Amino acid sequence: MSTRWIFTVAEMISFATEVRSQSKTLALVPTMGALHEGHLSLVRQAKIQCDVVVVSIFVNPAQFGPTEDFARYPRNPEKDFELLESAKVHAVLAPSVDEVFPAGFSTFVDPGRIATVWEGAQRPGHFRGVATVVLRLFNIVRPDIAFFGQKDFQQVVIIRRLVEDLNLAVRIVVCPIVREADGLARSSRNVYLSAEDRRAAALLSRNLKRAEGLAQSGEADVEKLLAEMGKMFAAEPRLQIDYAAIVDPATLELVTHALPGSVALVAGRLGAVRLIDNLIFGPPGSSPEMKLQLALTAPQPEKESAASARPEIDSLRIKIENCRDCAAVNSISLPAREFLFKYLKRDYPNLDAIRMLVIGGCAPIGPSDSPYRNPEPANAFLTRLYELLGVKSFAEFKASFALTDAARCHAVGNRVDERTLEYCAKHLREELKLFPNVQTIVVLGDYAYQQFQRHILGRERTSIKPFPELLKAEGWAQESVRLPFYGERDLCVLYCYHPTFENKKSPSIAAYLCSQP
Ligand code: AMP
Fold this sequence. Notes:
The chain is of the alpha/beta class and 517 residues long. It is 39% helix and 17% strand. It has 19 helices and 16 strands.
């Protein structure tokens, strides 16, 4: 396969139309060329996720200010083409400025307040130019997925907003920052650094790393973290810092306390070269992908503001976010975190009123699969859960039940290992305490059963009946238990097959639930 070099919008549209007519998935990797390993990491991801990959190379004049380095921006089309050909990219779109902004072009996208802070404050109009060209590229190529780098974190936030606000039919995938051996983020502009400036540039990432280390060892106060960073930067006279900030990943507003998912942003100049970098704070040992997941699925505060302050929920959320044990597995499942942060506050104004708690197996990996986020249409799990409990809709479900999960972490896909169940039981115990008047707990499936028996009730493994044996005759089982934190009252625990994981189905327990006091 040879890489096709496309220069015109018309040819790109016909190439993309042809790809779609073959029912193939199409990826777009927008770049400004002068390609390096950072760009190539996006290309590799695109090749994994889509059938056909288009890389665009366009140094976009609309995103450079009048005094900025548009003319001097590195350009290296021959080397770019070689790299993309060896990466077996299907097409390279390299349009001229006139092709993208023909005479008479006059419509621009204004991304609003998030485009006016940090990079936006330093480079007025920059993100207006970025959003406009990206939207135009999306409309020309109409990709299924577009790939962007975390390197330009604010750009990612703005593009994701653009896609959501304008209902664009494209999925945005964000890839971690590729760095040099000494930590410097790869950037097309690095080639302009003198040898001394190149050495000094490594301080950007070193300082970010150090701030994360301080946060991981318990220093969450952002004022103190920024003061520490400031001291280190001040010791390097070659580096002129434009800003250093620790922000909320969704709003880009300064936070007072650094949490996993908070993002440290820095920008500075070495001579005439301007560099930016960022780092997402995460639990020790967390992978770059996991940190990205933490940042990109962070709750949107404006939606959350409707929820009342609930310190007990916040304190448990922070414990889960800081769960050191999660480093043992490869992905935190975020719906559980969102459940605590947002939905529990929003959907259950009175936790004391909840009498029935349902414990599922493991929280869905995709946040959109969480019924609290996407209640309608009911997915397969919800449909079967409603049948089991005898309710008709999520609104009806929510009126009587709260739904949580045995595991918030996934070792491999939906397989949950014993260690994870043990770790997550710590949080489940705390979560149970949030509902002081719970009378009935419905435990779904083998994982939740094992966890409940061993880590909530504290039973020996040898004394626990195998799940199928417990449920054998009726397809469900029931026992009365006491939990130390609920004092001297009996709780009714109902064990059922998991509505989706097991191939057996429990009969409806609705009649039984209704007869509970
Ligand atoms: P640019 O050519 O600088 O506009 O970058 C094109 C795309 O590559 C953007 O989505 C960048 O965020 C991404 N990118 C640039 N440098 C890196 C890097 N070091 N690691 C990961 N992605 C990067």
